[in-house]
TrEMBL record:
Organism: Actinopolymorpha pittospori
SUPFAM superfamilies: Enolase C-terminal domain-like, Enolase N-terminal domain-like
Protein name from the UniProt record: L-alanine-DL-glutamate epimerase-like enolase superfamily enzyme
MF terms in GO: hydro-lyase activity; magnesium ion binding
Domain of life the protein comes from: Bacteria
Gene Ontology BP, a term: carbohydrate catabolic process
Keywords of the record: Magnesium, Metal-binding
PANTHER family on file: ENOLASE SUPERFAMILY, MANDELATE RACEMASE, MITOCHONDRIAL ENOLASE SUPERFAMILY MEMBER 1
One Pfam family this sequence matches: MR_MLE_N
Domain Mandelate racemase/muconate lactonizing enzyme C-terminal residues, every copy: 148-245
UniProt keyword Cell membrane present: no
Cofactor(s) required for function per UniProt: Mg(2+)
Amino acid sequence: MKVKEVRVSYQNRPHAANPIRDALQTLTGGGSVSVEIESDDGLVGRGGSSFGRIDGAPRTLAVLIEEILAPKVVGRDAEQIPAIIESLKVETEYHGTEGLATFGISAIDVALWDLLGKAHGVPTYQLWGAYRDRVPAYAMVGWSNWTIDQLRGQCAAAVEQGFHGVKMKVGAPTLEEDVERIEAVRKEVGPDIKLMVDANQALTLTEALRRGHVFQELGVGWFEEPLRADDFEGYAELTQRLRLPIAAGENLYSARQFREFFERRCCDIVQPDLRRAGGPTEIRAIGALAGAFGVPYASHGGGPAALSLLLCVPTAIFLETGLRSSADGFPRLENGYALAPQGAGFEWE
Ligand SMILES: [Mg+2]
């Protein structure tokens, strides 16, 4: 099966009237890029990428895929996915593979694995070999700019929808504000729902230690990205000094960075992002490393490809999604577990 054509398109999202915020960023809109890869026997695999902000990013990525990556994919044996991905890393090394180029490589990787699943007529996770057929799901429902009433309403809705846990943003100007919001959510969801907090890289090591000790006493499930993503030394110290589990990894690129993160014992829970970590091919390697180092694995973001990977990573613990917009939306949930995709490739229905 050869790759006949790579098609790329992009879309911008209109700016929201009241954009959501975390401690670092205002997510004004952004948009998405779609990739279709057609084989010489007429099958089509689909992948893509998304941006929460930066209006120019979707068009920039579409050009990068079309002019730099796609020419290296057309004509290749579509079953030799790791070889294709490796050649894209080599091609982009000159201007830096990390960053936007990796978003593009990941989108192509998702489309190729979708295509291969379709060629075999099975869900892609079955080609990889699964550890499980379902994984617990939690909802990220607590943005920084929401009032406490909004926060409580969204968290209550997540519990109502059957999620096993909720996550909210922290890193407010003062610790007291963080505590007030955490206590309000805990009161709303009750003692049995896992409550995680995410500081989106906003704190210093000293402040993360100070807040971490308080969050620990409040029964928080994990403390996510307290420090800048590249502060490996800070993460190692924090992980050693806090009993509260440290979760991180959504801003790391490639298995090599994750290998060092694991070797230096920088986190208690690792959270690769499908776009930045480098797509399913790279994440399968990262998942194997997480297994070898005994580090629990939770996805950053959800979607059928992220769920498919969780089914196959030995130490997977949690799928992250948002609130479901309708009862029949992705993922199919049963008792708070996201169920394995059923269609060929990454088709989930
Ligand atoms: Mg996060």
